[in-house]
Write a structure and sequence with these properties.
Elements (H helix, E strand, L loop, with lengths): L1 H12 L3 H5 L14 H13 L3 E14 L2 E13 L2 H11 L5 E7 L7 E7 L9
Antiparallel strand pairs: 1-2, 2-3, 3-4
Length: 128
């Protein structure tokens, strides 16, 4: 899960939403009401607000409970851009609760894992 999570984050940093989408399960759903399509749409908006974006994961922790796995880490964003980018930096970097990426093994293939949820109970996202 470490490599899958790192690769997903790198795709987001590169603003490659299609590449990031390859990691996301069709049945994705999170605590903020995003399904797969809404997550990718919002990611496009968020990463588009940055002129530079770097995401660091502090001390990742992996828990494996087949067929699922959980990757938890405190994420720190360093980036620049207009007002929205600044707000995202402040909100994410002030969180003390780690993000949790929930992965599910989709087949017998060792690389066939898909992201089915992202959680962080401390992150409040207003309804749009």
């Amino acid at each position: 899960m470490q490599l899958h999570s790192q690769n997903f984050i790198r795709q987001v940093e590169k603003r490659d939403i299609l590449g990031a989408g390859n990691f996301v399960a069709a049945e994705y759903h999170d605590d903020w009401g995003n399904d797969r399509a809404l997550l990718l749409s919002r990611l496009r908006l968020v990463v588009g607000s940055f002129s530079l974006l770097k995401i660091n994961a502090d001390e990742p922790d992996i828990t494996l409970t087949p067929p699922d796995a959980s990757w938890r880490a405190k994420l720190q964003i360093s980036g620049s851009g207009p007002e929205l980018a600044t707000e995202i930096n402040v909100r994410v970097n002030s969180l003390v609760t780690p993000f949790e990426f929930r992965w599910r093994k989709k087949s017998w293939k060792p690389w066939d894992w898909k992201l089915f949820a992202i959680r962080n109970p401390s992150l409040q996202i207003p309804d749009t």
